[in-house]
Amino acid sequence: MRISDVNQLEFDEFTSKFGNVIEHATLITAAVWSERPFRSLTHLHDEICKFIDTLPDTGKAGILRCHPDLAGKLSQAGTLTSESTKEQSGSGLLSLTEDERNYLQQCNAKYRNKFGFPFVICARENKKDAIMKGFKTRLDNSMVDELNTGIREVKKIGWYRLLDLVDKDSHL
Ligand SMILES: NC(=O)N[C@H]1NC(=O)NC1=O
After folding, report:
1. Can you give the pTM of this predicted structure?
2. How confident is residue 172, by pLDDT bands cut at 50, 70 and 90?
3. Which of 20, 22, 23, 89 has most ligand 1 atoms within 8 Å of its beta carbon, as the pocket-test mutant?
4. How far is the CA of 49 from the centre of ligand 1 (A)?
5. How far is the CA of 118 from the centre of ligand 1 (A)?
6. How many angstroms separate the alpha carbon of residue 103 from the centre of ligand 1?
7. Helix axes 82-90, 143-165, angle to 10 degrees
8. Whether residue 67 has its Cβ less than 6 Å from ligand 1
9. Where is the Oxo-4-hydroxy-4-carboxy-5-ureidoimidazoline decarboxylase domain (predicted)?
10. What are the sequence ranges of the domains in the chain?
11. CB-based contacts of 125, cutoff 8 Å, min separation 6
12. What's the chain look like in SS3?
């Protein structure tokens, strides 16, 4: 699909195609539709990021809370969204040894205990070893740092999801 095709989409078509670019946060896509026409895929992504940046910290934490744990319950039950399944499997998180899975689940629990939202990292840019390391360093951060870091990762995840849907080099 080209960006010119994106600009032709009715609201319902747009939200159905792009509704999960930010995991379980269709409202963001719904809001951004009003900003058409998009000059490029980058412009569409910028509008998504701009909308996220206008949210209070509670809204940003809410976005993080809509993300599934890495190698968590949903992945074991096979009920991740198709996007998350692709991302988590690409980084090796869906084929862990039992020890690795136990370790990650302990890290998830520690992180969630400390910050009140899940650890979010762009799995397409991090293989499982980098993710395990990321847990180690990020667990020592402050709440403000982690809210910002998590949101930065959400924006990266969204960019890759957009790349799966639209030809990046198409312009108006
Ligand atoms: N918790 C978390 O980071 N989840 C995810 N990251 C990613 O790239 N896809 C996800 O589902």
Report:
1. 0.95
2. low
3. 23
4. 17
5. 9
6. 17
7. 100
8. yes
9. 7-162
10. 68-149
11. 156
12. CCHHHHHHCCHHHHHHHHCCCCCCCHHHHHHHHHHCCCCEHHHHHHHHHHHHHHCCHHHHHHHHHCCCCCCCHHHHHCCCCHHHHHHHHHCCCCCCCHHHHHHHHHHHHHHHHHHCCCCCCCCCCCCHHHHHHHHHHHCCCCHHHHHHHHHHHHHHHHHHHHHHHCCCCCEC
- Average pLDDT of 136-158? 97
The answer to whether the peptide bond before residue 37 is cis (omega within 30 degrees of 0) is yes
pLDDT in tens, 2-56: 999 999 999 999 999 999 999 999 999 999 999 999 999 999 999 999 999 999 9
Give the mean pLDDT of the chain: 95
pLDDT at 168: 86
CB-based contacts of 33, cutoff 8 Å, min separation 6: 11, 14, 15
Q: Please list the active-site residues.
A: 67
Q: ipTM strictly over 0.85?
A: yes
